[in-house]
Structures are given as structure tokens and as C-alpha cells.
Amino acid sequence: MMNNAFAQPMWLNGPAPGQFYNFMGGNTQAELPRELTTAGPFGTKHSTAAITTGSSVVGIRYAGGVLVAADTLVSYGSLARYQNIDRVFKINDKILLGGSGDFADIQSIKRSIDQKMIEDQCCNDGVVMKPKSLASWLTRVLYNRRSRMNPLYIDVVVAGVDEAGVPFLGNVDLRGRAYDDYVVATGFGRHLALPLVRERKPKDRDFTFEEASNLIRECMKVLYYRDTRSIPQYTVGICSASDCSVKGPFKVEENWTFAETVEGY
Amino acid sequence: MSTIGTGYDLSASQFSPDGRVFQIDYASKAVERSGTVIGIRGKDCVVLAVEKIIADQLYEPDAASRIFTIEKNIGMAIAGLMADGNYVADIARQEAANFRQQFERTIPLKYLCDRVSGYLHAYTLYSAVRPFGLSVLLASWDEADGAQLYKIEPSGTSFGYYACASGKAKQQAKTEMEKFKFADMNTDELVRSGGKIIYQVHDELKDKDFRFEMGIVGKETNGVHLINDASWSQLAIEAGEAAKNADDSENEI
Amino acid sequence: MFRNQYDSDVTVWSPQGRLHQVEYAIAAVKLGTATVGLKNNDYAVLVALCKPPSELSASQRKIIAIDEHLGISIAGITADARVLSKYLRSECLSYKHSYGSTYPVPRLITTLGNKMQTTTQRYDRRPYGVGLLLAGYDEKGPHIYKVEPSANYFNCKAMTIGSRSQSARTYLERHLATFNTCTKDDIICHGIHAIRSTLPNDELSKDDGASQLMITVAIVGKDQPFKVLTDEENLFYLDMAKKRGATMLSKSGRNDDDDDTPPPIAEDKPEPAGPRDPQVAVATMERP
């Protein structure tokens, strides 16, 4: 019940300095979703850890396109819980998305992105989302969530080509940190794959497609050997001016013969 | 309307003594002034076709397009006020997005139709708003439900159809449509007859030039709603031109 | 009193299925001075007539910059246009913030149309009494859109609105076929000629010097952020239009020998990014 003990202001929503005059019954501001509002009277408990997780994503840019690879494992803690999940997604004909971190959050953000693609289609004006725009949007969303102390626990790779066919490869993480480069990696890949690729980068030119795909193969192998949250099966997304698709799954070429010689553990 | 101006026709929230809400009837008049729009439903396909009367030669060909995409596989065509149409298209898209968010699937056309007609109906209840001057055709195709076609009137009533028409030449279009047996038609035949009907009902004497617009969704479009797709449109326009020329030569004899 | 009993509110349909209040709002557009929008393959140009209401006053602002790829020219109630331009600016800004790129013009127009539509359907609102010509450039090329108080919007090859715009329309229709292929200078000159034709004859006759014709010109296009031309540039183009007048009016497809005369100033230099306040062609009213 409304408390009528106090007099109501004479003119609700009346003239306020520095604003357009908005009168009652006009367009009211849409209410923010609950997770985006500030704490309630008893505080708000936010999630503080990822539960079901995907490990590394590795992306390499080559002349005319990009490659994005991730193994098909989604772990539950240290348990290799779901072993056949694609973590590289085709968003539209120009964009690939690779996701690591909390898989539920990845699925959630992917749903939002998919809705944007439908909106693009509805507009029927031939304009489609560019990878750079998507990376920018993700940065805004993730930074906004972290500023509200309620981050999405994800670390994503956005890759693709723009309307001129120029490749783009970028990374956005749960704090809204973002950068783009010829190689990006998330999770353990940031430690194991990044230096490996940078070492091979010719100073004067981009990678060729062959070089890039060989490097992806090698990175996925190293990651499998050294990252406990990985399995020897991965998918690779390829995006160039002529093609955008997710290929695989591929198997890592395992060789454990050296294991017999390992001592001292 | 024989009882114009009886004083009971100034508000959507007012009945006349004989039980009509005149404001809704008047809104329908706006629909009747608009170019013809038809929807026809074949075996594995639905076609929406529009006679878009070109009001101004300074407009681009795609100006004031009256066919919209609402979801991947849902098309919408309107007869009536353009501004209302754009607005309702936006509402329909929001409803489709809301359904997808909740159920992670495309909204079945039956439900979309329910939601949009509920929205239009709400505008017939209050004196503070006016009814939409719109007739809305909704079309979709998917594997589960096949081809679907609905029409919503300004009053908010809606029905499913095999074929329906709105706008200026609604009656002629209905007459033409009754000659066909759309339910058994394949995509090509359906597209051609869509072209034929629009070209036949266009009144060259009253209206100047018109542009044929078409939305199509069906098995052969992989369940994607396409607007003015080059090859399908060409098929329809050729069939339409041919039918018109045949009619013309008949008249000369 | 009322012209008929169905024109008191925007929520009342007439028995013929018309909305008289919306039609009256459209009539408000015709009270404003004329403005012209036209485009070639790479540029969209707005030309507006600014006639001061009295000799003591400055003229109304006719062209409003929205974003670096977009601007509007208005005819009708200027105050209403300010509300709409504020909306457009904030939409463009928020789009740029989210996506790091400029708002595709047709999509922006759709949101504007839907905002304006609500005012044509509610008892407590009136339609915006202003017509807009919108010139924009995006990845699909240049656009000219016309937006009416009825919330209808149209993608146009060229368009003119405002008082006496019929004569400008005649000019545009006659030269429509040549616009696509003509040069940037030509398209501006065509715009000036079109706007000139909206002047009453007696004013035209006393218009001996080119400076008599008060206009604002704005251009946007390929590698050309939206820009309202300066007084000097206006004079330059007025002069050019006058010189070319005879040839352009006589034959629509002209030879390109003397095209691309360099303007007096390096006018192609892209200015720093971001929306700027337009420079009005005549002196604006300043606080004492």
C-alpha cells in the first residue's frame, strides 16, 4: 500500500534542469535485469568461480584469414566431464568465436550473439556484424559486468574477416581486457602456445596458411601433453574471405614412448 | 458504412447502439486504401506478395518495403499504414526474440500470431489510443509444422489461411485465388501464381506504376525467409507479366 | 471550430480511414523553408534555404550534424527537430560505444521511425511537426532518407521538402538520371539550382549577387565526414553553380571537361573525428 501520510510531490516527473521534459505516461526506462542492478538490502552474492570449464583456445592470423582451435573437452573441476563439446563456434559468415572459461557463461553470451545475428538478418539490409564490432561489444559487456562485481567467467577469442577481407584476431577476457594480435591464446595456451608461435613469426611478413595450420597442430599437441585439463581431440575454425567453417574433430598425434624413460616422480 | 457520424464513432472505447466499434471499422478503411497484399500457402512453401504502388519517382525501389523478416523462418507482410507496419514488425521481432530466449527454439507461428494479435487487440480497447491501421500477414515454414499462414485484422482477430488477401483489390484477389488449388502446389507453381494474382489485380487506370515485392519461405529456401530474392522474384514477375499480357490481348479482341 | 469532427485527436480515425491530426502535422512541414537532399555514387548532399524571418534576426538552423557519417536537414518546427536530433545523436553515440563503428543508416532510421510512430497513436502526444531529410554514408554507400511526421520514412534517390518545394522537385525529377554519375561539384551545384528554384520570382530577380541567396550546404560521403560548408565554400559553390547554370539546365548529360575545379580551400581534408556543431552560414545570435 502506498503511504499517504506524506504529501506527494506536486508534479512527478516534472521539469528538471538540463533535461528534456518528460511527462508521465511517456516512454519509461526499461527496467534493468536483476543481475545488473546494485545490491539489495541484504547484499548480493555473486558467483566467484567457474564451475564447468573449457581450457585453452588458440588463434593464429595468417595472410588472408584466421585459424581458431580448441579441444573438445568441458571439465567439471578436474573431472573430464564432457568430452565432445565444440568450443569454437561459427557466428556468421565472417566471424568465429572460441570460448574458454565457464561454459555456461559462454553458452549464455553465445545466445545473445546469435540473437544479434537474427536481428542482422531481420534488417535485410545486407549489413552483417564484423569481427571488430563483435569484439568491441563483448569488451563493453564484460567490462560492464566486472564493474558491477558480477563478471562472466569467460575468456573468448573473436576471429574473422571484415568486409574488405582483412583478417582480425582478438581476445577479450572476464575483466573486459581486450587486445588484438597475430596470435592470441587463452588459458594454459597463453603460457604454452603464445611463445611457441611468436618464436616462429617471420619479422617481415604474415604467416602463410600452411605455417599457421602446422603451428595450430603443434600447439594443440603441446597443450595436450602439458595441460591436464585437455584431451587429444580438437576442432579448428577457419575464416577467410571465401570460407568460414569449423572443421574436425582432429586427433592429436600422441606418442608416449618417451614415458618409459621418465624417472624421478 | 451507412451510419457514419452518429456520434458513437469517435473513440475505440465506445460501442454504437447496434454493437459496433466504429473506430475499428474506420481503421480497416485505411487497410482498404493500401496496395494489395496476398499470402498463399503451398505444399512446402509460403509466398507473401505485395503490390507496392510507387508513390513518388524520387524514391529508391526499396523505399517503404512492406515485407519484413521477423525470425529466420518467419515473414510478415502488411497492408495499411507503413509507420504502423514498421512498428508492429518491431513488436513481432521482440516477441520472437522473447520466445527464443525462454525456450531456445523458433517461435511457432501459431504463438507468434497469438501474441501479435493480442497486441493489436489491446489498441482497440482504450480511448487513449487508436487501433492499428493494419492488416498483418504472417508466414512461416519449418520441418515440424510445414507451411503456415495467418492473417491479423485491425480488430486483433486472426485466422489461419490457405490463401488470403488484404488491401485495395482484396475481393478480386480472393476471386482469383479461388481458381487455384494452392495446397498441392510446389514452390515454382506457387511463386508463379503469386506473381499472376498481383499483376492481374493491379488496376492500371487508378494507380500508376507498382513494384512487385515478394517474401518466400519454404523447404527450397532451406527454411529461411527471403525478401525479393532475385531468382524467385524473376519467376513470379515473368509469370505476372505474361498473365497481364494475356489478359490485355483478350480485352482487345 | 474544427474542419470536421474527426480531426480533434491523433487517436481518431476518420470514416475514410484517415488520421487528420497526422495530416495536419505533415502540413507543418510545408511551413518551413525548403531543403533539398540528393546523392551521387559517393556523396550525399543537403542544401537548405535559410531565410531570416526578419532583417534583424539570424535565420533558423536548417542543417544539424548528427555523427561523422550522418546529418539532417529540417523543415517544420525546429524545436521538434531538436528532440529528434538529440535522439539520433545519442543513438549513434551509444552504437559507436558498443560496436566501435558507425550506425548503419537504414537501421537508425527504423528506430527513429518507431519512436515517432508512438506519437501518432496516443492521446497524450502529438506527432512531431517536422520533416527531415537525412544524408548519411555507410558501408552500403550514400543514403538520402525522408522522414515525415507520420513516422513514414523513405529511401530516396533525391528529395525535397518544405515550402515551395514543388519547383525543386520538378528540377530534381528532370535531372534525376544524371545524378549517379556526376561529380561532387556537380551534385552540389544541382542542389543549389534545385533550391534556387524554390525562391519566388521577385526574390530571384533582385538576387543579382550570388551572396543574396542564403543557403546552408552539407556534404557527407566517401572519405568525407559530414561537414557543413563554410561561408567561403558556399560562395564558391554558389558562384560555380551560377556559371554552370546555363549548361546544366540546357543539357542534362554534360561533358566533364571543366569538372573538379579545385575549390578555394582544401575542402577534402577530413576533419577530426566526432560530431561537431555545424557552422551556420550566417551569423548566429550571440548573447550580449
From TrEMBL, chain A:
The record, for SUPFAM superfamilies, names: N-terminal nucleophile aminohydrolases (Ntn hydrolases) (SSF56235)
GO BP, sorted A to Z = proteolysis involved in protein catabolic process
- Nucleus: is it a keyword of this entry? yes
Name the major location.
cytoplasm
Q: Where in the cell is it found?
A: Cytoplasm; Nucleus
Q: Which GO terms describe its cellular component?
A: cytoplasm; nucleus; proteasome core complex, beta-subunit complex
Query: What are the record keywords, sorted?
Result: Cytoplasm, Nucleus, Proteasome
Q: Which Pfam families match?
A: Proteasome (PF00227)
Q: Which residues form a coiled coil?
A: none
Family named by the database record: Belongs to the peptidase T1B family.
Q: What does this protein do?
A: Non-catalytic component of the proteasome, a multicatalytic proteinase complex which is characterized by its ability to cleave peptides with Arg, Phe, Tyr, Leu, and Glu adjacent to the leaving group at neutral or slightly basic pH. The proteasome has an ATP-dependent proteolytic activity.
Q: How does it assemble?
A: The 26S proteasome consists of a 20S proteasome core and two 19S regulatory subunits. The 20S proteasome core is composed of 28 subunits that are arranged in four stacked rings, resulting in a barrel-shaped structure. The two end rings are each formed by seven alpha subunits, and the two central rings are each formed by seven beta subunits. The catalytic chamber with the active sites is on the inside of the barrel.
This chain's protein is named: Proteasome subunit beta
Automatic annotation (TrEMBL), chain B:
Give compartment(s): Cytoplasm; Nucleus
Q: Among its keywords, does the record have Cytoplasm? A: yes
The alphabetical list of record keywords is: Cytoplasm, Nucleus, Proteasome
Proteasome alpha-type subunits domain sequence ranges: 8-30
Check the record and name the SMART domains matching this protein: Proteasome_A_N
**Predominant place of localization:** cytoplasm
Q: Which GO terms describe its cellular component?
A: cytoplasm; nucleus; proteasome core complex, alpha-subunit complex
InterPro entries in alphabetical order: Ntn_hydrolases_N (IPR029055), Proteasome_alpha (IPR050115), Proteasome_alpha-type (IPR023332), Proteasome_asu_N (IPR000426), Proteasome_sua/b (IPR001353)
Q: Per its database record, what is this protein's job?
A: The proteasome is a multicatalytic proteinase complex which is characterized by its ability to cleave peptides with Arg, Phe, Tyr, Leu, and Glu adjacent to the leaving group at neutral or slightly basic pH. The proteasome has an ATP-dependent proteolytic activity.
Q: How does it assemble?
A: The 20S proteasome core is composed of 28 subunits that are arranged in four stacked rings, resulting in a barrel-shaped structure. The two end rings are each formed by seven alpha subunits, and the two central rings are each formed by seven beta subunits.
Family that this chain belongs to: Belongs to the peptidase T1A family.
For this entry, the protein name equals: Proteasome subunit alpha type
Gene designation: Dgri\GH21325
UniProtKB/TrEMBL annotation, chain C:
Q: Which terms under GO biological process does the entry name?
A: ubiquitin-dependent protein catabolic process
Q: One Gene Ontology cellular component annotation?
A: nucleus
Q: What organism is listed for this UniProt entry?
A: Drosophila grimshawi (Hawaiian fruit fly)
The signal peptide stretch is none
Q: What is this protein called?
A: Proteasome subunit alpha type
Q: SMART domains this protein is in? A: Proteasome_A_N (SM00948)
Record's superkingdom? Eukaryota
Quaternary state and partners of this protein? The 20S proteasome core is composed of 28 subunits that are arranged in four stacked rings, resulting in a barrel-shaped structure. The two end rings are each formed by seven alpha subunits, and the two central rings are each formed by seven beta subunits.
Q: List the lineage, top down.
A: Eukaryota, Metazoa, Ecdysozoa, Arthropoda, Hexapoda
Q: What does this protein do?
A: The proteasome is a multicatalytic proteinase complex which is characterized by its ability to cleave peptides with Arg, Phe, Tyr, Leu, and Glu adjacent to the leaving group at neutral or slightly basic pH. The proteasome has an ATP-dependent proteolytic activity.
Gene designation per UniProt = Dgri\GH13363
User: Can you tell me which family this protein belongs to?
Assistant: Belongs to the peptidase T1A family.
The residues covered by the Proteasome alpha-type subunits domain are 6-28
List UniProt keywords, sorted A-Z.
Cytoplasm, Nucleus, Proteasome
User: Cytoplasm among the record's keywords?
Assistant: yes
InterPro entries (UniProt xref)? Ntn_hydrolases_N, Proteasome_alpha, Proteasome_alpha-type, Proteasome_alpha1, Proteasome_asu_N, Proteasome_sua/b
SUPFAM superfamilies in the record: N-terminal nucleophile aminohydrolases (Ntn hydrolases)
Pfam families according to UniProt: Proteasome, Proteasome_A_N
- Region described as Disordered: spans on this chain: 247-288
Query: Where is this protein found?
Result: Cytoplasm; Nucleus
